[in-house]
UniProtKB/TrEMBL annotation:
Region (Disordered) location: 285-306
Protein name: Manganese/iron transport system ATP-binding protein
UniProt GO molecular function: ATP binding; ATP hydrolysis activity
Record-linked PROSITE patterns: ABC_TRANSPORTER_1 (PS00211), ABC_TRANSPORTER_2 (PS50893)
Claim: Nucleotide-binding is one of the keywords in the record: yes
Basic and acidic residues: compositionally biased ranges: 291-306
Cross-referenced SMART domains: AAA (SM00382)
Keywords: ATP-binding, Ion transport, Nucleotide-binding, Transport, Zinc, Zinc transport
Biological process per Gene Ontology, one example term: zinc ion transport
Organism: Cohaesibacter gelatinilyticus
Family: Belongs to the ABC transporter superfamily.
Entry keyword Electron transport: no
């Protein structure tokens, strides 16, 4: 079990993650994020949603201190971003493409890397470090794989190992860059169940995803991004059809099923399927009904491309 937030100043327990007016310009002069601001409280899961190249990974890198800020600041659990990173409070689960899977390292060694910040400079693991690694692997159901080479695992298993590394680190803020890409539905469900548990324990999670259908299912908050923050807040307020169309523009696939394709009577209701090519976001109701039922479908069949 992870430690409670007892080591934090009691005045700061409510504060989660605040990005205030942050701008990131890469060395080639490209500004990937401009004046982006949002805030999320503790005990929440926030979806980070935007098209390819909209700056999601750049935002994660700026929160991790991997790229410098041209403007603005980051505050984490009431302290500066730099202080929170120094105190090992922020854990990062990278995109699969960012990891060199040919590097010969065992699963348990990857998870032990999460403990480095808790060890002395000789990096000799203590009994507690070994216990934390074992607990973390058990929590993601990967304990049986701990002596396996990381490169030999499936995509979903690798994701779970990196999630275990974040747990072993005891990060209070966990940044997950596309944790569901290349993952089957069972693993996705396991990961979302774990994220829900971590939310109950008060963690702050920011999850980038193209899996639009899963956002209303488990993310209580949403940040919409396209080189800046377009909107942020509670998912029920922000994750609307109109906002998604604004965020994705023409990139999104958009199907509408209605009339005789859906009903054998004169029912006027229709199903709107919005997809970024992973699991779609489905809106059911009258044509202009913003308060429609929302859910997921695995595969839109016989859909008319709109
Ligand atoms: N190291 C870099 N140097 C210069 N430009 C970069 C660098 N990394 C990313 N970019 C550019 O910044 C923009 C944002 O990229 P980023 O990787 O943050 O997008 P993303 O939203 O994570 O995309 P995806 O959904 O494809 O993962 C893109 O135009 C990208 O080409």
């Amino acid at each position: 079990m992870l430690k409670p937030f007892s080591d934090l100043n009691p005045d700061n327990r409510e504060l989660g993650l605040v990005a205030d007016n942050i701008t990131v310009t890469y060395r080639n002069g490209h500004t990937a994020l401009r004046q982006a601001s949002f805030s999320i409280p503790q005990g929440s899961i926030t979806a980070l949603v935007g098209v390819n190249g909209s700056g999601k990974s750049t935002l994660f890198k700026s929160l991790m201190g991997f790229v410098p800020l041209a403007t603005g600041s980051v505050s984490i659990l009431g302290m500066s971003g730099a202080e929170a990173l120094k105190r090992n409070l922020v854990a990062y689960v990278p995109q699969a493409e960012e990891v060199d899977w040919n590097f010969p390292v065992l699963v348990e060694d990857v998870v032990m890397m999460g403990r480095y910040g808790h060890m002395g400079w000789l990096r000799i693991p203590s009994r507690k470090d070994h216990e934390m690694v074992q607990d973390a692997l058990e929590r993601v159901n990967m304990a049986d794989y701990r002596k396996r080479q990381i490169g030999e695992l499936s995509g979903g298993q690798k994701k779970r190992v990196f999630l275990a590394r974040a747990l072993a680190q005891e990060g209070k803020v966990i940044l997950l860059d596309e944790p569901f890409t290349g993952v089957d539905v069972k693993t996705e469900d396991q990961i979302t169940a774990l994220l829900r548990e971590l939310r109950e324990e008060g963690h702050v999670m920011l999850v980038s995803t193209h899996n639009l259908g899963s956002v209303p299912e488990f993310c209580d908050r949403t940040v919409l991004i396209n080189r800046t923050v377009l909107d942020s807040g509670l998912t029920k307020d922000v994750f609307t059809q109109a906002n998604l169309e604004k965020t994705f523009g023409g990139v999104l696939r958009h199907f509408i099923l209605g009339g005789s394709e859906l009903h054998d009577d004169d029912d006027s209701r229709q199903v709107t399927v919005i997809t970024d090519d992973e699991r779609p976001f489905v809106v059911y109701g009258e044509a202009d009904d913003g308060a429609s039922e929302k859910g997921k479908v695995d595969k839109p069949q016989e859909a008319r491309y709109d």
